[in-house]
């Protein structure tokens, strides 16, 4: 639109800026809090400008962690979260690609039945099936392990469905050309389908990484050993300490640290991510 | 290099039979064009040769080897698809090299063969590009390059030019012809465009509703179409079909619309008294001086094409007062092709004569050819 109404422009920007401020303010507070000492945060007046303890607080966190308030050093929790989020994202993509490939390109008995079974699991989020899942994981001896953290969350109807829809748009001639060229099913999958799904894979990766990173309930259940605690549940443990004030400045610093990896993933993959969601024509 | 034998091939989808026993023998190095309207089964036939469709009955052999149960890659064929089917994420080089790579050829050999094919197709400068950075004609060339590189014994073309604009189509048509000549590779080419079919083919297969109506050289098919369908499909504008009857002596044809044709060289004794369909191509009706005509044409729509003028109109008996009005629309409309600067206006009456020896008689029931006249 070609319009020139200064007031309208001003109003639009004003509304947008208010919205941004509303969203960013809590994060700003968290950051500011992470640069003060514990005492100034519980004094009743929350500071709005960064203090001078930025390096000290973060050094404490990363090296020693918060002894006495549960959880190991923060770097270990970050590492655990990273392993969990990455395995979930990568595992989900691998499994969904393969199952979508099977459902779209192979004619086997009960093909559509399989697809609908996969699809039906969309209706059962982790929280609903948490008891039986826990039972299975416990019986398999996967408590307190990375496998226990990630494997139960890997099966994914969403991604299978998305890849299926994408595979259906790949022209048949491409499949036929590959057959002419002598590519077997696996060659076709590896050389043609996966490279073509690149943007979709990126989109799914971003979504699933954040999904994995933000898991709270499941890690809380399957880990009792501090060395397997993830960062998101770690934060929660920091603020529910007995017999003392929660050390808000360190909790906030942890929050800021926990925020970083998903942000980095989104920023790095943003271009591909948007393309993957928008693009239909290849 | 190989010949192809298609023997009584049948295709069924469930209970619906779409190809009813087609047999074609293709000689080594020949370019055979299969032409027909949409849904006639021509693409299905090609895909059966390619191995992309199962064969429900009959036998296809390539170079003496029955291929009914072979995978496409084992048939020693290459195919060019209508929408090119290039791999969008690979460069031109990789697109052409993919088949060889899978076959496990050494890198050096692949490079050599791809570069040779690229040179032949004038693609050398484009080898690093992606398909989406190419024009339609270039993509078509890459698709052909992909086929050539493999050095197969048979090329299959599935309407390869129908996505191109008219000018490019003519150019690519010539290139395909030259390429096929110089490589002398047996080729099977499917199209619905009869000009493409006529210009490319060594021999032409005209298909209709799952049956090969006629297999012959283009000029024979034009000169002596075996059925009404073939006669109407090949040639543009289409042949005119006029119902009529051979008179009792077999010397003249009385058309249902009135006029009698007397100027026929061959006696029609064999068909005396019989109902027939007379076929006359628009280019075989000649304007003549008043008095020599077989009939008059009352001009309706006149199309000026530059090289020719097409006149569509109704037949009028010589000397008759008014044209017969029978039915609506196209019924009874006859087309005539006149030289480029013929002056004809709507409503004119043209005296026309059917050229001797260029008429076709068909059985009105079966549509089969009866005789040349």
UniProtKB/TrEMBL annotation, chain A:
Pfam families: BPD_transp_1. PROSITE patterns: ABC_TM1 (PS50928). It is found in: Cell inner membrane; Cell membrane. InterPro entries: MetI-like, MetI-like_sf. Keywords: Cell inner membrane, Cell membrane, Membrane, Transmembrane, Transmembrane helix, Transport. It comes from the Bacteria. Residues 78-269 form the ABC transmembrane type-1 domain. Gene3D superfamilies: MetI-like. Its main location: membrane. Belongs to the binding-protein-dependent transport system permease family. The complex is composed of two ATP-binding proteins (UgpC), two transmembrane proteins (UgpA and UgpE) and a solute-binding protein (UgpB). Part of the ABC transporter complex UgpBAEC involved in sn-glycerol-3-phosphate (G3P) import. Probably responsible for the translocation of the substrate across the membrane. This is sn-glycerol-3-phosphate transport system permease protein UgpE. It comes from Aquibaculum arenosum.
UniProtKB/TrEMBL annotation, chain B:
It comes from the Bacteria. Keywords: ATP-binding, Cell inner membrane, Cell membrane, Membrane, Nucleotide-binding, Oxidoreductase, Sugar transport, Translocase, Transport. Residues 4-234 form the ABC transporter domain. Gene3D superfamilies: 2.40.50.100, Nucleic acid-binding proteins (2.40.50.140), P-loop containing nucleotide triphosphate hydrolases (3.40.50.300). This is Sn-glycerol-3-phosphate import ATP-binding protein UgpC. Pfam families: ABC_tran (PF00005), OB_MalK (PF17912). The lineage of its organism: Bacteria, Pseudomonadati, Pseudomonadota, Alphaproteobacteria, Rhodospirillales. GO terms for molecular function: ATP binding; oxidoreductase activity. Belongs to the ABC transporter superfamily. PANTHER family: MALTODEXTRIN IMPORT ATP-BINDING PROTEIN MSMX (PTHR43875), SN-GLYCEROL-3-PHOSPHATE IMPORT ATP-BINDING PROTEIN UGPC (PTHR43875:SF12).
């Amino acid at each position: 639109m070609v319009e020139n109404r200064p007031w309208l422009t001003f109003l639009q920007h004003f509304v947008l800026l208010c919205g941004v401020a509303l969203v960013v303010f809590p994060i700003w507070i968290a950051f500011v809090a992470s640069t003060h000492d514990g005492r100034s945060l519980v004094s009743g007046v929350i500071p709005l400008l960064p203090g001078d303890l930025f390096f000290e607080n973060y050094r404490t966190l990363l090296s020693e962690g918060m002894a006495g308030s549960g959880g190991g050093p923060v770097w270990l929790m970050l590492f655990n979260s990273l392993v969990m989020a990455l395995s979930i994202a990568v595992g989900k993509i691998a499994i969904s690609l393969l199952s979508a490939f099977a459902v779209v390109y192979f004619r086997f008995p009960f093909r559509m039945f399989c697809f609908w079974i996969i699809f039906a699991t969309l209706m059962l989020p982790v929280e609903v099936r948490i008891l039986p899942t826990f039972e299975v994981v416990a019986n398999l001896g996967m408590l307190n392990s990375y496998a226990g953290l990630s494997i139960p969350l890997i099966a994914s109807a969403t991604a299978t469905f998305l890849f299926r829809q994408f595979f259906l748009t790949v022209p048949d001639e491409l499949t036929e050309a590959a057959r002419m060229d002598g590519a077997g099913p696996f060659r076709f999958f590896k050389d043609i389908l996966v490279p073509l799904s690149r943007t979709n894979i990126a989109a799914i990766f971003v979504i699933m990484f954040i999904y994995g990173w933000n898991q709270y309930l499941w890690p809380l259940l399957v880990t009792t050993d501090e060395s397997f605690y993830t960062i998101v549940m770690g934060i929660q443990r920091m603020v529910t300490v007995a017999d003392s004030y929660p050390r808000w400045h360190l909790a906030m610093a942890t929050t800021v640290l926990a925020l970083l990896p998903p942000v980095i993933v989104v920023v790095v993959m943003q271009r591909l991510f948007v393309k993957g969601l928008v693009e239909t024509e290849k | 290099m190989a010949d192809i034998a298609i023997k009584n091939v049948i295709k069924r989808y469930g209970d619906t039979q779409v190809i009813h026993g087609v047999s074609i023998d293709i000689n080594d190095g020949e370019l055979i064009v299969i032409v027909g309207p949409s849904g006639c089964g021509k693409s299905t036939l090609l895909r059966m040769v390619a191995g992309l469709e199962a064969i429900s009955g009959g036998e296809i052999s390539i170079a003496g080897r029955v291929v009914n149960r072979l995978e496409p890659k084992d048939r020693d064929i290459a195919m060019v698809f209508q929408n090119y089917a290039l791999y969008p994420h690979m460069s031109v080089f990789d697109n052409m090299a993919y088949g060889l790579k899978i076959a496990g050829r050494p890198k050096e050999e692949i490079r050599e063969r791809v570069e040779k094919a690229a040179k032949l197709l004038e693609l050398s400068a484009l080898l690093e590009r992606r398909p989406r950075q190419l024009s339609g004609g270039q993509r078509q060339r890459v698709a052909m390059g992909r086929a050539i590189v493999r050095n197969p014994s048979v090329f299959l073309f599935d309407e390869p030019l129908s996505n191109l604009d008219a000018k490019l189509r003519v150019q690519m048509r010539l290139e395909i012809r030259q390429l096929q000549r110089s490589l002398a590779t047996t080729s099977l080419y499917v199209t619905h465009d009869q000009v493409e079919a006529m210009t490319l083919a060594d021999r032409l297969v005209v298909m209709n509703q799952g049956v090969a109506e006629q297999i012959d050289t283009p000029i024979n098919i034009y000169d002596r179409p075996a059925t009404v369908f073939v006669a109407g499909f090949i040639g543009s504008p289409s042949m005119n079909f006029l119902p009529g009857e051979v008179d009792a002596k077999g010397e003249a044809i009385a058309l249902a619309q009135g006029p009698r044709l007397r100027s026929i060289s061959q006696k029609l004794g064999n068909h005396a008294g019989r109902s027939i369909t007379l076929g006359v191509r628009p280019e075989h009706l000649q304007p003549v001086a008043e008095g020599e005509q077989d009939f008059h044409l009352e001009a309706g729509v006149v199309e000026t094409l530059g090289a020719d003028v097409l006149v569509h109109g109704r037949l009028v008996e010589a000397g008759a007062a008014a044209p017969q009005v029978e039915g609506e629309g196209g019924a009874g409309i006859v087309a005539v092709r006149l030289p480029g600067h013929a002056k004809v206006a709507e409503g004119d009456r043209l005296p026309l004569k059917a050229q001797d020896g260029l008429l076709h008689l068909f059985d009105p029931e079966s549509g089969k050819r009866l005789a040349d006249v």
